Amino acid sequence: MSNKKGLLALSPLLVFIALYLITSIIAHDFYKVPITVAFMISSIYAVATSWNFPLPKRIDMFSKGAGTSNMMLMLWIFVLAGAFANSAKVMGSVDATVNLTLMVLPGSMIMAGLFLAACFISLSIGTSVGTIVALVPIAAGLAGSTGVSIPMMTAVVVGGAFFGDNLSFISDTTIVATSTQGCRMSDKFRVNFFIVMPAALVIFIIYIFAGSGIQSPTDIPVVEFTKVIPYLVVLVCAIFGMNVMAVLTIGIILTGLIGMINGTYDIYGWFSSMGEGILGMSELIIVTMLAGGLLEIVKANGGIDFIISRLSAHIKSKRGAELSIAGLVALTDICTANNTVAIITVGGIAKQIGDKFGVDNRKCASILDTFSCCMQGLIPYGAQMLMAAGLAQLNPIQIIPYLYYPLATGIVALLAILFRYPKRYS
């Protein structure tokens, strides 16, 4: 594919970046251009410029991308998350859980403790989305009680969520990375652990120092333990590996039962709170569908193939091979907004590159997983960022400056390639 055609295939993403990021930076206001409008205009442009397909075919491709099985599963999770988050908030679960946390943890350890909890939960359940659903409302509540920036506390959870997404044995990214590279999960975990653990320790220490000035309120209200039950049950079920949709359904039922028993609301109040929560997710749902359709058009026009061919054309060494694999999966994630799909897309060619230049397949699997999770944790239109922003009532761009852990993993993983670390697998 020529450079001209390749850039044209990728141009819908460039239009989105120009409309949303650049104009917002110029205006010094990330609310000037709604993200839904930026995606709508970029999607119209993507459909309009796909001249090699008839118009009905273009619309069909866009619709299929917006309505894939993975996409619809994510939308159902958003609906359930919105219903649970708002009914729990109205019932008082968030306030009760925040008060319990403030009672148990000293103020100086709240930030580090939240990061550690997110790391542990995501490692246990293997999904960043489930971790974000469980912890972001609590993080936002803690921020309000302690005076810490809400974007900062939200970013702490998002970072910890990607720790487990990257390392967990039951994570989709781990399963796909190891299967495409033909290595055992335990071997990939060992290499991956050596690469990302230094980053996690550094960020944990940073959060200890960053939180040293946080003072817990002295007038903490009496904890209503019954109202904490929905969040405790959700966390326990998630840790034991229950499906995230089943976990959220259980949480919704518990908020309704406890809320009606203690008189917080009647059945109509419960329905109303769930409805408001679902409506609160409407922008997130629209953005996710528009992004899915736009990225399908980019893929159909050869945008991802263009990236792969250009990055893999000039490899001359093992280090160059590893850097190319990292670049391939990172750029593909930007184009797909899904780290699992990014690994599936480039896994085969990464295996070929690795075999040709003698890259250890365990290191190759770790590179695929780590760089896909790093990029997924930084793009503002990824499902995890949109979910976190929706639950915390923020713009995704507000969270990005505080995403220390995804950025740290990318830096450490890049250094691991440049300095041939860990030596045994390089």
Quick rundown:
This protein has 426 residues and is mainly alpha-helical. The protein is built from 21 helices and no strands.
List keywords for this structure.
mainly alpha; 426 residues; globular; 21 helices; single chain
Structure description:
It contains 21 helices and no strands. By secondary structure, it is mainly alpha-helical. The mean pLDDT is 87. The protein has helices spanning 3-27, 35-48, 55-66, 69-91, 93-104, 110-125, 128-146, 150-167, 172-181, 185-210, 225-239, 244-261, 267-280, 282-300, 303-311, 318-336, 339-357, 361-376, 383-392, 396-399, 404-418.
According to DSSP, the number of beta strands is 0
Question: What quaternary form is this?
Answer: single chain
Distance between the terminal alpha carbons, to the nearest Å?
33 Å
Number of helices: 21
Query: Helical residue percent?
Result: over 70%
Mean pLDDT rating: 87
The parts where pLDDT drops under 50 for at least 5 residues are none
| Overall spatial form | globular
Radius of gyration in whole Å, from Cα? 22 Å
The helix-and-strand class reads mainly alpha
Biggest beta-sheet profile:
none
Please provide the ordered H/E string of secondary-structure elements: HHHHHHHHHHHHHHHHHHHHH
- What share of residues are in beta strands? under 5%
